[in-house]
Write a structure and sequence with these properties.
The complex is a heterotrimer of chains A (234), B (434) and C (257).
Chain A lengths: L14 E12 L2 E13 L4 E6 L5 H8 L7 E6 L2 E2 L5 H10 L1 E4 L11 H10 L5 H14 L15 H12 L6 E5 L7 H18 L2 E5 L3 H6 L2 E6 L2 E2 L2
Parallel strand pairs in A: 3-8, 3-9, 6-7, 7-8
Antiparallel strand pairs in A: 1-2, 1-4, 4-5, 9-10
Helix pairs in contact in A: 3-4, 3-5, 4-5, 5-6
Chain B lengths: L2 H14 L1 H36 L7 E9 L11 E4 L4 H8 L4 E15 L10 E8 L9 E6 L9 E4 L1 H6 L14 E11 L5 E18 L6 E4 H12 L17 E6 L2 H13 L2 E4 L2 H43 L1 H9 L4 H44 L11 H18 L1 H9 L10
Helix pairs in contact in B: 1-2, 1-9, 2-7, 2-9, 2-10, 7-10, 7-11, 9-10, 9-11
Chain C lengths: L1 H14 L25 E6 L1 H4 L6 H4 L1 H9 L4 E4 L7 H7 L1 H6 L4 E5 L2 H5 L4 H17 L3 E5 L8 H5 L21 H22 L2 E3 L7 H4 L13 H14 L2 H8 L3
Parallel strand pairs in C: 1-2, 1-3, 3-4, 4-5
């Protein structure tokens, strides 16, 4: 489901939730993680999600990223509801609208840097040659053109995350989600990664939401949303 | 994700995680090797055993006697002989025309007086039967050459003898070559009344050279000769009067036939057709059926053993892949996070299982054939030492295809559950933790 | 019985996978090409001496057998000799079968019985011609034996006055026998006929007179009955016939076919 065709004058998509609730079944009964969350991020915005552990940051991100189906409440991305998406539709949403960057990088260890990016492109059905070219371009755009054939194990943390960012950008996402992207990186690499994410936002017109518990990271964003006990704190 | 992309990803995963997969591939290899080796040995052994039953002749041979069939003939393998019934060229032509008949070999046997070379304690003469067969087509005959060769066809002065001859002449049965080259004078009588009122026995004498020692089932008889010789003897005798029961005239042009059916499946029908003509027949139908049944049991048991090995290997695949799915949860979650559908993930894992199966199947089939060949070489060395005929390994293409295809298919089946589990993993595994 | 048999056979067959009957291979190759030519045919016409009476084993020691075995081994022998046969009887019984067989070689020894029955020479000559001519006419090589020296046979002497003490006893005492001179005269008469008819018909004479007084000089050639040739005697007679056989016949009937 394509949210909207790329319009340079409409950078990114708006993200709106209302009364978002989410529960996890556990051994000791149901655990409510989100207690009716309302938030709004404008299109092209740069939001930092902060909060203590267990406050629901990752859950919110995984819901917005389509990693999980919405159980209760309203969730709209780019004006379209994602609350009713399931199965293949959800996969399509993830593929076409969202770009996800993980704390653990999430690269396939048996594939090279280029192949990891190609993997994301292979899900869209474009042909092999075009896929390769595009992957090369993306890899070059994160400054790792010379690391094409390197496996993740031979790359530094920062380099891996940059490859992950290139992969996340592969299918031209409107919504770029990053879950503690600099959590495992040193200061220098962290700065580089954040800079990349931010430039992706401005150059490609995405809405950028970063989950972090790092103040300095959070302060780079234009919006700071703090979660507390599954709700948005003031 | 297209099948080719899934294939490539599966291939990379399987081969670049070599350490993880090699043990599983090894298990499949050994199991396939066992199954292929067993199958190859069984196929080779079965054909050898079945051929033994036919004692050197075609396995589809039916013996026909110059006698009527008693009731119940077709239910038994042995002759149930009734009164004499003539077999002539017309009989042969009639049977040759029947469905399912490959060839008809005539047999004519007569009583013969044989004067063997003198040995101390040996007989001066032997009254035995001389069996005449068409030696232009020895492949149709239930004859096994133990030493030397078969006599030349036509009016050759050559004969082959059975082990009974060695026995009569007190020769060592373990050294049949000793009989080769001996000359035996063989005579058949023409009985004529003389002016004196008594019967005069005139002899037709042939000095035959023993060129071979054989085991033969064409007809009871110690001497195997070309049918042309016996026909000359018969013509000679028929110009006389015979002497009643002691040496009755050989009325029937042939004393028997060996009818070769096209296939084992035709044997009964051909026997029935000959029975309809009135003749008594004998064929190892029940014996072969019993042997085949027995062999089938052996086949099934051996096949089950091989199959169990494969199932065990398959369980190994399932186990190993389930572990993989557990280990690669985050990777699977990420795959989904970047947009892979459930069935894309399922495809990849299924193909990974398929690779393991195919690799193991190819290696196992090759190893199995080599093993069977090695076993065959050992067996042949033993057989040669015992002076016996060796076995020839036969590897039907079906076994190769089944070995590789079967292992692959089994692996795909084994991978179904892990693949489904991988497919069902929630994408949030990518993030890990609530 | 059936079930037991098939079970034990199955067991034997299956076990005999490796321990079979010692076959050296499937009998596909006869090993020699089929023989299509006609064999040499040898027909023996005669009476008791030709039938081997007097030897220990007539089947192998009769002189035609010896001739056949030693000189014509690849030939087929049709032994028509009947003990007691005269020439006339042979004409009635042996002649037509002999002709039907289209022989290549024929041996004829029919004289002693005729002599004993005192058949006239003229009759003998007529009958001999009727026997020999059709055979030579069909292309057979015919060997005819003359009458050997019989007036010194122990059996004859036994019936004459003053029989030798160590010989056989006379089978028909009191029968009047011709004198030795008379016997020799009759023998000569027969032998003249034989030589003449043989010459006319193109047959070969095997002159047993050439042995001389064989019964006296070689008693070991005479059987215990004092009349027939012994086994040794048969060998000697066979040699005489063999010497008379044409080379070509011998080589034809000796070559393995």
């Amino acid at each position: 489901m394509v949210i909207s065709p790329r319009d340079p004058r409409a950078p990114g998509v708006t993200v709106v939730t209302s009364g978002l609730r989410h529960t996890y079944p556990t051994a000791g009964g149901d655990l409510v993680v989100l207690h009716g969350l309302d938030l709004e991020v404008p299109g092209g915005g740069y939001a930092a999600l902060t909060g203590a552990s267990g406050a629901g940051k990752s859950t919110l991100l995984s819901l917005l990223g389509g990693l999980e189906a919405v159980q209760e409440g309203v969730a709209e991305v780019g004006g379209r509801s994602i609350a009713t998406l399931r199965g293949d539709d959800l996969a399509t949403y993830r593929r076409e609208t969202v770009g996800f960057v993980f704390q653990h990088y999430g690269l396939v260890p048996v594939l090279s840097a280029l192949e990891n990016i190609e993997l994301a492109l292979s899900l869209t059905g474009i042909d092999r040659d075009e896929r390769r070219d595009r992957a090369r371009t993306l890899l070059a755009s994160v400054g790792l053109a010379d690391r094409e054939h390197h496996r993740p194990s031979t790359l530094s943390g920062g380099e891996r995350q940059r490859v992950a960012i290139a992969r996340a950008m592969a299918n031209d996402p409107r919504l770029l989600l990053a879950d503690e992207p600099t959590g495992n990186l040193d200061e220098q690499a962290a700065a580089q990664v954040l800079g990349l994410l931010e430039s992706m936002r401005t150059e490609h017109g995405c809405t950028l939401i970063v989950v972090t518990h790092n103040r300095s990271v959070a302060e780079r964003a234009t919006m700071r949303l703090r979660l507390d006990g599954g709700r948005l704190a003031a | 994700m297209s099948w080719s992309d899934a294939l490539r990803l599966a291939f990379e995963s399987a081969t670049r995680r070599f350490g993880r997969t090699v043990l599983t591939v090894l298990a499949v290899t050994l199991a396939s090797a066992l199954l292929v080796a067993l199958a190859t040995i069984v196929v080779t052994a079965n054909s050898r055993v079945i051929n033994q039953v036919s004692k050197g002749g075609p396995i589809t041979a039916i013996r026909v006697a110059a006698a009527r069939a008693e009731p119940g003939q077709l239910e038994t393998d042995d002759f149930r002989l009734g009164s004499p019934l003539r077999i002539d060229e017309a009989t042969i032509a009639g049977i040759e025309r029947s469905e399912g008949v490959d060839a008809v070999a005539p047999v004519l046997d007569l009583e013969v007086l044989a004067v063997p070379p003198r040995v101390p304690g040996g007989p001066q003469r032997i009254f035995e039967r001389m069996v005449g067969v068409d030696l232009r087509h020895p492949e149709r005959l239930p004859v096994t050459v133990l030493a030397g060769r078969l006599p030349a066809a036509g009016l050759s002065n050559e004969t082959a003898v059975t082990l009974g001859y060695l026995d009569r002449l007190r020769l060592d049965a373990d050294d049949p070559e000793r009989a080769l080259g001996q000359r035996v004078a063989m005579a058949h009588a023409q009985v004529v009344p003389s002016v004196t009122g008594e019967l005069d026995y005139r002899g037709r004498w042939v000095a035959a050279e023993i060129v071979g020692v054989v085991a033969q089932e064409a007809a009871p008889g110690m001497f195997l000769v070309p049918i042309e010789q016996v026909q000359e003897d018969r013509d000679w005798a028929l110009r006389g009067v015979g002497d009643g029961d002691r040496q009755p005239l050989p009325r029937s042009p042939f004393s028997g036939l060996i009818v070769v059916a096209d296939t084992l499946g035709d044997v009964h029908d051909v026997r029935e057709a000959i029975d309809d003509l009135g003749y008594s027949t004998s064929a190892p139908e029940q014996l072969i059926a019993n042997v085949q049944r027995y062999l089938r049991v052996v086949d099934i048991v051996l096949g089950a053993i091989g199959l169990i090995a494969l199932v065990i290997a398959a369980l190994g695949i399932t186990n190993a892949m389930l572990a993989q799915v557990r280990e690669r949860r985050r990777e699977i979650g990420v795959l989904k996070a970047i947009g892979a559908r459930d069935r894309d993930v399922q495809r990849v894992f299924l193909l990974e299982a398929g690779f393991v199966g195919a690799a193991g199947g190819v290696a196992g089939t090759a190893l199995g054939i080599v093993t069977a060949a090695a076993v065959g070489a050992v067996v042949n060395r033993y057989l040669a030492q015992q002076g016996l005929q060796g076995v020839e390994l036969s590897v039907p293409l079906a076994i190769v295809v089944a070995g590789i295809g079967g292992a692959t298919a089994l692996a795909l089946v084994a991978g179904t559950v892990p693949a489904r589990r991988a497919a069902r993993l929630p994408a949030r595994e990518a993030v890990g933790g609530a | 019985m059936r079930g037991a048999r098939s079970t034990s056979v199955i067991a034997a067959v299956v076990v005999s996978l490796v321990a079979c009957d010692g076959a050296t291979g499937p009998a596909i190759d006869a090993g020699a090409p089929p023989v299509d030519g006609e064999p040499v045919v040898y027909v023996a016409i005669g009476a008791s001496e030709s039938a081997g009476v007097g030897t220990q084993d007539p089947f192998s020691q009769a002189w035609p057998k010896v001739l056949w075995r030693d000189s014509l081994p690849e030939a087929v022998l049709y032994d028509l000799a009947r003990p007691g046969s005269t020439l006339a009887e042979a004409l009635a019984e042996q002649s037509s079968e002999a002709r039907r067989l289209h022989p290549d070689v024929v041996t004829v020894w029919l004289n002693v019985n005729d002599l004993i029955e005192k058949h006239p020479v003229a009759t003998y000559e007529r009958e001999l011609k009727r026997l020999i001519f059709p055979l030579t006419g069909s292309g057979a090589t015919v060997l005819v034996a003359t009458t050997p020296r019989i007036d010194s046979l122990p059996i004859y002497l036994a019936c004459r006055p003053n029989p030798p003490p160590d010989g056989p006893s006379c089978p028909q005492p009191g029968v009047a026998l011709p004198t030795p001179a008379e016997v020799r005269s009759m023998v000569a008469g027969y032998n003249d006929v034989i030589r003449r008819v043989a010459a006319e018909a193109g047959a070969i004479v095997v002159d047993l007179q050439l042995f001389g007084d064989a019964p006296a000089q070689h008693p070991e050639w005479i059987a215990e009955d004092g009349f027939h040739p012994s086994a040794r005697g048969a060998e000697v007679i066979a040699e005489a016939f063999a010497d008379a056989l044409p080379e070509q016949i011998v080589s034809e009937a000796s070559a393995p076919r």
